Amino acid sequence: MTLTARILSLVLVVQLVLAGAVGAILARNARGAVAAEVDGSIQATRALVLASVATLIDSAPGPTLVPALAERLVQPRHAWITLYDMQTGRTLAPVSRIPRRDPAPAWFARRLAPVAHASELPIVESGNIRGLAVIAADPTAEIAEIWDDARALALVMALAAVAQVALTAAVLGGGLRPLGRLRAVLGRLARGDLAARAGRVAVPDLAPLAADIDRLAAALAVAQADRARLSRQMVGRGDQERKAIARDLHDEYGPNLFALRVEASAIRDAAAEPALRGHAENILAIADDIRRVNTALLSGLRPMAVGQLPLAAVLSDMFDDLAARHDQIDWTLDLPPALPEPDEATALTIYRILQEGTTNVLRHAGASAVTARVDHGPDGWTVRLADDGRGLGAAAEGNGLSGMRERVALLGGTFAVQSGPAGATLTATLPADAP
How far apart are CA 5 and CA 10, in angstroms? Predict the structure, then answer.
């Protein structure tokens, strides 16, 4: 159950307990009041009967006394008079001129009804018993009146309970409404939107929580900025190390290999013996193998053109070379007319993504058309490479693409590969260039 449901349930339980307690107290007091009212009515009725008999003895003597008494008397409110005529053996009852209320339900009447009792009063004239007046308790009217009051009280209490629940729900809704905003802010933070802030909250109990959330968001933003800076520094340091190694391979191994080839060629040309010329040819072949390995290492460590030429020119040269060496595939590179120059780490990443993606297409896709596009916007860079082949299959998560995914993640971007029977699409996003 929600907090609102729990509080409203508690309010309802308290209301029900209160209603039960009030009902029990009213029932106990009402039972005593009914008994007292009925007893008083019986006593008053006895006095009324005695007074009426004394008044009628002179005017209605003998056998006419009981019928005259029946005509003279009126049924009281909380008692019932029954007259027995000894002369005729008839039972007479005075008329009732008091309108009767609708009776209360039987269960309610049983709880409030006093112990039934009656009072007998002989009707005597000149020493002769002319009849008998029986006065019985009749709490029906009193109980009906209490029932009407109880129903009105129950209605008022029910309306008060409904009003209290409604007001409590309204107060809770207004007080807890900022929690929805705080939850939305936390959701945005969890999705990576570290610019989300809770701001000022009018509810005093929730204001410290909102302030804590904003401090947490600010701390996360600082931590993310530090992480992005450190990640980019790590990528940059790695690129610098590879650049230094590539420079050493180019500047040191290159001249030495050239000198080795010159010396081997001189030995081959000056040698008179065929065996010596054969050894010189072997040295030249080994030098060529070392040169090819060195060239491959240089290309793998760092493309020499990146950082020396505009990125658009480097990418265009790469696709022109692919089109020349693999003319059975339709190669398309789509670049904006005014593509800005990224920082060195971003430029190397874009180049490596397209290089690794086209290499996978050549190895696994069997495609007839490859399309690449590089875009730049306010949010950063987008690289997309698509082919119409059979997909990358198991190679979709090979070492090359996994390395690209890690590099893009270190730069704070995203990397995704969608592969299927109709081809594969590689999409990478990179944040705006670091200062």
Answer: 9
Which of 81, 70, 43, 45 has its CA nearest to residue 130? Answer: 70
Q: Is the sign of the CA dihedral 176, 181, 185, 187 positive or negative?
A: positive
Q: pLDDT averaged over the chain? A: 83
- Quick: pLDDT tens for 51-88: 988 888 888 778 888 888 888 888 888 888 999 988 88
Side chain identity at residue 220, one-letter code: L
Condensed to tens digits (0 to 9), the pLDDT of residues 8-56 reads 899 899 989 998 998 889 888 988 898 898 889 889 989 998 898 888 8
pLDDT tier for residue 248 given thresholds of 50, 70 and 90: low
